[in-house]
Design goal:
Chain A is mainly α. In chain A, helix 2 crosses helix 4, helix 2 crosses helix 6 and helix 9 crosses helix 10. Chain B is mainly β. Chain B is built from four helices and 23 strands. In chain B, the strands form four sheets. Chain B has an eight-stranded antiparallel beta sheet, covered by helices on one side. In chain B, strands 2-3-4-5-6-7-10 form a seven-stranded antiparallel beta sheet, with no helix packed on it. Chain B is globular and about 60 Å long. The termini of chain B are far apart. Classes of the chains: A mainly alpha, B mainly beta. At the A-B interface, helix 2, helix 3, helix 4, helix 5 and helix 6 of A face helix 1 and strand 1 of B.
């Protein structure tokens, strides 16, 4: 029997470093692709991704599965950080500092690698999903609509919508190089 | 070549590991200190019950004011690598969050003096007090890594909900106070932190020790094993109610709102050159609030956020505002942040005063708070706020030019 993959909620709630590592592996591709679509400079992309996960680590106790998938939560954090970076002229580092994380020095080859990761086309990945999954992901994760409302519009049960969103996100993760 | 994301993963898991091995207290970067031997006996003086209530009235000392002077004198020839704010004048400022949908208060400290530390420093921000979050803000020194030499006292403060009458830091108990420069109902305590003191932390709750430690890397080659990093002692800041009972903290950030970001095609984006932005270039037309402008050439909107609904902040204590729209403008090279504040608990209710702001003579319904670089006009049941810019005069000109074209709080 195939072992059951732990949910994001389980990984965040366990408090174990290895579980947060698994959570990072699972969502790194999605977050990097999201940030990479908005920011061109690879060192800025890296800092934004780093601060996004640092903030997620600090606030992991606040993640509530019932409010939506973890990738939506992470993207919300990343969006705020991007906006903040544009306003301040620099990427916030407060969470990394509070966590005592060391700055990562980046060499040219590493910058190229980051640029490559950040250039993954999220739109193309979304387009590759079946229409019902794509619509579910867009409405739930991007537009932040309630499951109830989506289900009502589509005249199906909430469970069906949840399943479509869940499958869509799993496929997206796979497309973006994350964990299957 | 090492994959930088693998390095990042290692840093994150090391940080998570530290959280496993150290006390799960939250450390605020604005309160810091260096290690010194701790007396274990003092650690046993855990806040509890009525005994503390009696001691509180006898031993609690007054807070420092929101604006004052740090003891000592400014070093005329500061030594490189030594942090000191001795002799500087300080001012702690609390301003409402202008980010659309994000109810909360931001706190800042400004140091004024002829020296390298002059300027503003950040603090805790963006949250508000409720029953489980008695301390919701604070300010202090800017972050300096552990082990860096420090001279003299630094300034620290906590901004608390109405239920907190004092805070205990080690063997010191300091009374909180209200002020017209704080949100109505909320309180503050300001205190000096001597060099080499334990690192004060917030987030105490029953079961956690008053004195603990945090491991942090030191030196150029700290290694990857957190268990080998030096220990830095910490001391919990414990909020106390009127009876002297310690108030537990179950810190909970508000859910992030969902705002619709827009950015003008020619937006100024320092440090992020030519962003490949393909998103919305104008505010959504169906936002609950909409800003307009009239008669000030050169006033250019560059980015902002629209929200489609306000989720009332249930359970909050003290005055609380939330902005129903935000936008950043530029005028003659100066950035100005704007927002429209409404009551966060009961949107549509008449708002109270803006902390620290005073009426502008001969300009009806307009207030100004130069120390916070903030001006505002009361329009119906909202405050139209302008923050930043070159000064009060420019902000007032921008306020005159801005309009609230829509304020629909029924959604």
């Amino acid at each position: 029997m195939r072992p059951r993959t732990p949910s994001d909620s389980t990984l965040l709630a366990s408090g174990k470093a290895s579980d947060f590592g698994a959570f990072y592996d699972r969502h790194l591709g999605g977050v990097t692709a999201f940030v990479g679509r908005r920011v061109r400079q690879p060192e800025v992309i890296f800092d934004l991704v780093a601060e996004t996960f640092a903030r997620a680590l600090e606030h992991r106790a606040q993640y509530d599965e019932a409010r939506g998938p973890a990738i939506g939560w992470l993207i919300g954090i990343a969006r705020n950080l991007i906006l903040d970076a544009v306003r301040r002229g620099e990427v916030e580092a407060a969470s990394r500092i509070r966590l005592g994380m060391e700055p990562v020095e980046l060499e040219d080859e590493q910058l190229e690698l980051i640029a490559e990761r950040g250039s993954v086309d999220l739109r193309a990945a979304l387009a590759s999903l079946p229409a019902e999954q794509r619509d579910g992901v867009l409405r739930r994760v991007v537009l932040d609509e309630d499951y109830t409302r989506i289900a009502s519009d589509l005249r199906c049960s909430e469970q069906v919508v949840r399943k479509r969103v869940s499958r869509g996100l799993a496929a997206l993760r796979a497309n973006l190089g994350g964990e299957r | 070549m090492t994959d930088p994301f693998v390095v990042l993963r290692s840093e994150l898991t090391a940080a998570a590991k530290r959280a496993e091995v150290t006390s799960p207290q939250r450390r605020w970067d604005w309160l810091r200190g260096r290690s010194r031997p701790l007396t274990v006996v003092i650690a046993a003086l855990v806040i509890c019950g009525s005994a503390t209530a009696a001691v509180l009235s006898l031993t609690a000392s007054s807070s420092q004011p929101l604006a004052g002077k740090v003891p000592g004198t400014i070093a005329t020839a500061p030594r490189t690598g030594i942090y000191s704010v001795a002799g500087y004048r300080y001012r702690i400022v609390v301003t409402p969050s202008l980010a659309a949908g994000q109810a909360g208060w931001n706190t800042w400290i400004q140091y004024v003096g002829r020296g390298p530390q002059s300027g503003s420093g950040g603090g805790g921000g963006g949250t508000y007090p409720n029953a489980s979050n008695p301390i919701f803000g604070g300010t202090g020194t800017s972050y300096v890594s552990f082990g860096e030499p420090q001279r003299g006292d630094t300034v620290a403060s906590v901004i608390t909900g109405p239920q907190v009458v004092a805070v205990r830091i080690g063997n010191r108990t300091i009374r909180t106070f209200t002020s017209t420069e704080l949100p109505a109902g909320d309180r503050a305590a300001v205190f000096f932190v001597p060099a080499n003191s334990p690192q004060p932390t917030v987030g105490w709750r029953p079961g956690l020790p008053i004195y603990s430690y945090i491991r942090a890397p030191a030196g150029p080659h700290p290694g990857n094993d957190p268990n080998r990093w030096p220990k830095h002692p910490t001391v919990a800041i414990v909020p106390l109610d009127a009876s002297g009972t310690a108030l537990a903290t179950t810190f909970s950030y508000p859910d992030p709102p969902f705002e619709f970001f827009w950015q003008a095609p020619k937006a100024i984006t320092p440090n992020i050159t030519e962003p490949p932005y393909h998103g919305r270039t104008h505010p959504r037309a169906d936002g609950i609030c909409q800003l307009g402008q009239h008669g000030l050439p050169g006033l250019t909107p560059v980015w902002g956020d629209t929200i489609l609904r306000i989720k009332p902040a249930a359970g909050s204590l003290g005055e609380l505002f939330v902005s129903c729209v935000d936008a950043e403008y530029y005028l003659h090279g100066w950035p100005l942040a704007t927002g429209v504040l409404v009551d966060a608990r009961h949107p549509g209710q008449v708002l109270g005063a803006l902390p620290g702001a005073h009426a502008v003579p001969d300009v009806p319904d307009v207030v100004d708070f130069p120390g916070a670089q903030l001006s505002a006009r009361r329009i119906g049941k909202a405050w139209l706020v302008v923050k930043g810019g070159s000064g009060s005069r420019q902000r007032l000109r921008v306020l005159e030019a801005l309009r609230i074209n829509r304020l629909d709080l029924r959604r």
